[in-house]
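Work package 3, deliverable 3.1, input record:
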Amino acid sequence: MVRISDIAEDLGVSRSLVSKVLSGKMGQSTVRPELAERIRARARQLGYVPNVSAKSLFTGRQHAIGVFISRHGQPGSGLVEALIDGVSAELAKTQQRMILQFFHDEPDFEPCLAAAHRNLLDGVVVAGAPYFDLKPHLKTILGRGVPVATMFDTPVSPEIPNAGIDQTEVGYAATRHLVERGCRAPALVFISRPEVNLRYAGYCRALKEAGIPLRSERLCRLRTYEGAKLPDLVQALIASGEPFDGIVAESDRQSAIILRALLGAGVRVPRDVKLIGVDDAPVCEFSPVHLSSVSGQDRRRAALTVRLLQEVIEGKPPRHVLTPPTVSARESTAASDVGSVAPSAF
Amino acid sequence: MVRISDIAEDLGVSRSLVSKVLSGKMGQSTVRPELAERIRARARQLGYVPNVSAKSLFTGRQHAIGVFISRHGQPGSGLVEALIDGVSAELAKTQQRMILQFFHDEPDFEPCLAAAHRNLLDGVVVAGAPYFDLKPHLKTILGRGVPVATMFDTPVSPEIPNAGIDQTEVGYAATRHLVERGCRAPALVFISRPEVNLRYAGYCRALKEAGIPLRSERLCRLRTYEGAKLPDLVQALIASGEPFDGIVAESDRQSAIILRALLGAGVRVPRDVKLIGVDDAPVCEFSPVHLSSVSGQDRRRAALTVRLLQEVIEGKPPRHVLTPPTVSARESTAASDVGSVAPSAF
DNA sequence: CTGTTAGCGCCTTCAT
DNA sequence: ATGAAGGCGCTAACAG
């Protein structure tokens, strides 16, 4: 392993000079450009790579961050992969290292807590959608002087930077996409009460813009995150007699199940009913009809979260960012080829 | 941040004693158990966590490994996720850090090469199925004194430990599973020439064991990894008039496409034909008929790869391991009396 | 049983 | 324009 002192000896100069030249921080010093170049050349030639530990010892920075990911949520959504991809790409820029931990319930978070220490890492990114309250744990971590940034739907607290998705825009983008593709009666599947559901707000806005009346029959409320009841819900929607020509699902997984129910009931997709989900998951391309989806740009958002963390590590004020979603249009919302087909009554 | 010297001062003992007690490496020294306990108690109470950088500087170990993953291969296979999961779980045991990099072609490997340095990490795990020759690059890394372990189908070279899948067993397990579920005429879809295909060998062995004759009409050879030709292949198999009641696919993605083609042709799954793929990917559960699959136990295998790497880091000889696959039985190979999805739905 | 010392490789302040 | 010195936190010889 070649060290600074090797280069210094080689060239008959002092270690400090080499250090200053190679780090580019000359301080009060100056060098003859010619010497500087010789130093750099020798370093390159010898394949000099600074020893991060030594640097860390001096700077007090570990050159590493923690990445704690909640596994809660369906597997196969591709979220975890996108997330890690974004994080690692961002960290690679500075060759930062990471401590990656997955958790799904509260006891699982214990190892994360243990690792969240200044002597091991410089800060922590927490991502996913944990179903327990993380706030006290994050406070603990902050209390140790370890900065935290989150990638949640909603920020945990003002001092913790967060990169979220604009859920209102998700509902809006999905609904608007359906309208643009010719739908005049889009339905919405949702879980929480409409009053508190941001996507519902976006759905309403898109309808209003298009001059389409809001019909409660087209609001399909789920009681649980499990997809088991979905086919029934679709049946009920069809049986209601209320015409509909589009469905905004809450996820791609839901979307896939709904597709199956629709096809099973003899409804053609996208001709009779257009379908759009959320997540832009790999499933979209595995479905018999490829599914359109609203993408939360998770990869990009994960990279953003890392940058938000780095900002607070550098002492800058915490920022909260909402990233706008994009639509990945696929077969399930393809424009009806024969003009605008009036929604047939089922 | 509490240091060893803080504890030492607190208790009026020397730093080295504290160091020895806390690290458990007493060397030539001895301590009164009572004193040792007081030291440990104080450390616990103060929340002492050793500074890894300082330790690294001394030991020359970075307490970090590189994890370089080839992205080649279909997205949505869940491989990357399983892999990272296994690696991070193993590293968490010792709070090791990682440098995670994805690559898919040769230029992409450049950053990996740059990071693979003793001053940044202690060793490197390379996983996936790169389609270019990694050998020279791995040699370069080894040349720097950085140990490497791979998670490939076949080892790159004797000195590089590898955790592979026993592909012969994959073919055998899949075929045998079909036979056990009542198939008497299983077909095989494969890519390379039968002569060099290990899975084909396993397929043959399973047939032989079951006393089923090998029929070339049931060997369906693909020219490319793209699934586009698969439906044609299925058509051809059906048109050949050669009876078949099972299919071993090369992947779950293939399997999903084949399922669609079968259902489309009015073939009932699993009643008429049973279907099994490889990978145990999330797709299996998204298919209209849930797909059985042979699992390579990627999560476990990834953890194993890390252990193999740690062994060579510790100076032990490199080991090559082949892990046996397991079968995840689902609907697509259910015993025939179970109801099947009506193909008319598609 | 306990303490002293030197050094891992790098960076920065201060002196030359 | 360059170099010397000290120290980041920890460990392991070696002396007491």
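Chain B touches chain A through 50 residues (CB under 8 Å).
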